[in-house]
Write a structure and sequence with these properties.
Largest sheet of chain A: 7 strands, parallel
Helix content of chain A: 25-40%
CATH class of the largest domain in chain A: Alpha Beta
Structural class of chain A: alpha/beta
Strand content of chain A: 15-25%
Distance between the termini of chain A: 34 Å
CATH superfamily of the largest domain in chain A: Dihydrodipicolinate Reductase, domain 2
CATH architecture of the largest domain in chain A: 2-Layer Sandwich
Strand order of the largest sheet of chain A: 3-2-1-4-5-7-6
Order of helices and strands of chain A: EHEHEHEHEHHEHEHEHEHEEHEEEH
Shape of chain A: globular
CATH topology of the largest domain in chain A: Dihydrodipicolinate Reductase, domain 2
Oligomer: homotetramer
Number of strands of chain A: 14
Radius of gyration of chain A: 20 Å
Chain lengths: ~350, ~350, ~350, ~350
């Protein structure tokens, strides 16, 4: 049994990791930490877990000491020292935060106002989006788990970019996310009467996930720059991201070519479900699961591709993908502990 | 007192007209009709109206005979004969359906599979979007009330197109609508457990409102064609449309120019509220009112305009705008009966 | 025009008062105050009111000085001094808080841990539930607006108690309220992901509205004590209270007698809608209105009355009833400004 | 591997059985049937199951022939013949419908307007509420799975009735259920705009689950009659039942006695979680799991017990309990396949 631990277990990403690790046959959830709830049993923080997980919330250091793999679900900026510590102690480190996602320190400075403390560590870190970068993740020790929006957008567009079916500029990612993406802290935005029966956009063309999306698509384009406008919206639902992505098709590209490219690209991928023609992805159908549903449309009048993907922001967009990365890092079957049936309702 | 009547009063558009006409100081709601509920008092169909409107549902003909103005809230295809009848009897006819919205019979054939029965009548009909075409609506007798999505999109983009600030191709309207847009008939799509906690797109790049949007924007462009990709999504809320519209800025156009153009275009318009910089429109803030909230953003990296508008699909997108048109047709103050305060929650 | 002012205008009760006062033909909304938002225009606090109310938030004293009637929407304990000040200056004072609701200082001490600063003022204060105590409210100067739950429960049970149709002990009020009852401050309870898709009870048999319910019903019983178990629940909706009230029928009381008693009791009451047999009240049908819908059932097996009432907690349960009281205090028609059509959806 | 089959697999109860059986380590989901979707793969009916269950919908007879245990999720009245057939072929039969729940044919006639076709078969059938009747279920062949409301109410009150802590008359069960209880067929009631932001009661003191509740509690009372008023309400959420149950405490019974009795009664029961004093059960905390959360309160003023239970109506109230019964029937560990972590959000 792999000894697993979570630093920042009482945030939403951490709580979802607890749920999934409890059901994973090859791991033991050994230790968890929380600054806000230190000393409190986990099921007092989340009463839904009563009878299932009453681990006490410890200190960060306890988690590192007791575990083989450390998942960090921390606000950005707090993972670098922890990663270093895990690295020094030969633990596997999987970061659900943003500190190791960007290759370029300059971009990191621009968007996160931070620096790379140890450039070598950043160079070792791999970007854990298995369907795109599987081989580079296997047996690695420092893994940056992708952001939720970037996962949905990258999976929606990667085959089209890889095969050069679309223009690399003028791409639009109009994304809509459930509220858990905003975390567990109450705020005016997440106050029920404010959000219920509401719908709006936020951080329009200025969200930190933008450079991460461009970086991944640029890797797909063999390094050519890919530029993209990203507008996130907040949905009055708990879970799920729908990414509606628009790109201009290159001259002469047909719907058939598009479907063929996507079919081949995702052939054999358990977690990506390419929907039959005419069906559109719906966040409902992936809820609580690690699936990414993907649907493809062409607007022949505008000659553009419309790729719509749906993920559960807390699973494929966070905790589930983190476990998928852990499976890869430890040489386990990639779907281990992750064959989760999305409830029909 | 103007005698007003509604044909198709028990659909959602009709029911909202009842609500608004009951509060209008210059009109009397005189007669209503309904095929499904003929003979039944209105407040048995909608118990929320008990004590306020117990008019019986009559036949269509009764409404025409008893009223000065006839609002039609019918499935498309059923308004042409009714319009003719009203015209022959010198009644004002305001159509909440699609039969008179498109100038081109060819487009109407393509998208609605119908014909213009009386071309002259179609030529007389005006498109009732007051903020764009006020003068052509005043004192008219046959008024086509715009679709809900086209209202939101046209108001979001009209000034940019009118002033030539954006390219006329490659425009994207990513729209999200509350469920009342789907009408009062239960279906699998609107079954609560299916829609609750769900989110998806539908009729992707194939919705009938597309040609209507293009037509209005083309009028704004002095007849130049404007092409647009329109993707509607269904929100798990009752009311409201948010239209997130993307257009490439023409070379050298700045945010300042954009804001100035919009400010001038909508100067003095009571129902269009241009939001302060940085604030985004939210369907919550226009609920149950005739307002259109409008917010403007520029993505400097992609050099594109992002205009986000919010309306209540049943008010500015249907019944409210219909009454605004009635006010214009009868020479009443345009805001009469329409100064509705959107509840804060 | 009556000059009206609101102390505590930026809480939910205050904001709803603004909405309703803006639509009242005989009043002017003259001044508002807010501790949290002093100096800010009201429509910056609530952007839905843009273009409709940009009054600045002043100090409490400004409101008293500028207005003929002062509505107070304050946390309990803060109204007594304000009431005194209004009284001294001969202003009408309508308190949406709890300070003047209880006749008994002892009960006030027990449930609110407070004292009556000026007993004479408390004796002058009247309890503003017009359908039960209309005559005592007319032309009064200090009016205690009832709590939301007590309004729903009192209207559901008053006729049965008045006519001695039910036992005065063992009454149960199982109530369910929308979230706006919890106010505008974000908290863990009202955090969207916590409340959405949830349902629970709170303050079980220990809510402060209990003595107020018992007091009103005891007045209906000519002073005999009435005892009642009150359990409130929190609904994942914005507005509305449904009160399901259970009482044992006295021997030999029939459904016919019950309906007759209620019919006579509420005869001519505009705001109480006694539903046809077999129909149950629904919070949806009273939303945003001052109505109380009331439905009656008998369980012949248990020989008990089940009275189910529905109100909008922010209107009949707060701001609407306050205006109804103002109308009575000033000799205006009682429904003035309050004929609000609940939207059908 | 036990071969399991579902008759009526495409209703909500059936679909939830599919979800849970797919995760059960000792069974194979072998065959499913559906009248409405015969011939269609299951994941076309419920796209959330794509990649997980594409079994075709067969005929009822195919399920019986191919399986060791047959779950029936049918409208009432349709199970008796099927049960007979399973019985004749020595299959285990677990009925999620109502045909075998009531002991008394007379009650069945009164409430369901049906007859017992084969009285012997009804005598063999056991009522599958494991926490109350475990021993009678083990190794049985015909099992009546309890109704959703009766499960919640029986678990809330059984210890109090068993120990004679409360009066056996005047009990009130005020229950609130999520919408999935109404099934998969769209109707006006479940039409999203009608149900969203609404709340009401239905079948007041006339719901068919009433005699089932009384029967179970009477068994707990060693056959003494127990009478109860049951009022169900419909919540605008997908899943969950909250049962708020009121009973008069017998003279001298204290809160301590109550808690002690419940603690002993449910000692060792994995699926019943007795909450700490002061905490109230919430449907959120049992969602998608087989737990019943149970909280106890006393109103000292009225001398009454208030027991509040929460279950997931589709799991402990249907499919989960059915599998719990299957585990008992086959001698498997009772929690096998049912240790489901309720998501924290």
């Amino acid at each position: 049994m792999i000894k697993t631990g979570i630093v920042g277990a009482t945030g939403y990403g951490g709580a979802e990791l607890v749920r999934l690790l409890l059901g994973h046959p090859d791991v033991q959830l050994t230790a968890i930490s929380s600054v806000s709830f230190e000393g409190m049993p986990f099921d007092e923080v989340y009463p839904s877990y009563a009878g299932l997980c009453s681990l006490p919330c410890l200190k960060q250091q306890d988690v590192v000491d007791q575990c083989d793999v450390v998942f960090a679900a921390l606000p950005h900026g707090l993972s670098q020292d922890l990663a270093q510590d895990c690295h020094d102690k030969a633990k596997v480190f999987i970061d659900l935060g943003a500190d190791f996602r960007l290759d370029s320190e300059e971009e990191y400075k621009t968007w996160y106002n931070g620096t790379f403390k140890n450039k070598e560590l950043h160079e070792q870190a791999v970007y854990g989006l298995p369907e795109l970068f599987r081989e580079s993740i296997q047996n690695q020790k420092v893994i940056a788990n992708p952001g939720c929006y970037p996962t949905a957008v990258a999976l929606a567009l990667a085959p089209a970019v890889r095969e050069g079916l679309v223009e690399f500029s003028g791409i639009i990612a109009d994304c809509k996310s459930g509220v858990t993406g905003a975390g567990r802290s109450p705020s005016a935005t997440t106050h029920y009467p404010n959000l219920n029966e509401s719908f709006s956009a936020y951080k329009i063309a200025s969200h930190r996930h933008t450079p991460e999306m461009q970086q991944t698509l640029s890797h797909m384009a063999n390094g050519e720059p890919v530029s993209l406008t990203f507008v996130p919206h907040l949905l009055p639902i708990n879970r799920g991201i729908l990414a509606t992505c628009y790109a201009r098709l290159r001259d002469g590209v047909s719907m058939e070519q598009v479907r063929k490219a996507y079919g081949e690209f995702y052939d054999g991928e358990f977690f990506v479900r390419l929907l039959p023609e005419g069906k559109c992805a719906d966040v409902k159908n992936v809820r609580c699961s690690n699936f990414c549903d993907l649907s493809l449309f062409v607007d022949p009048r505008a000659n553009s591709l419309i790729a719509v993907s749906a993920i559960d922001n807390m699973v494929k967009g966070a905790a589930g993908q983190a476990i998928q990365n852990m499976n890869l890092a430890f040489g386990l079957p990639e779907t281990q502990g992750l064959i989760l049936v999305p409830p029909a309702f």
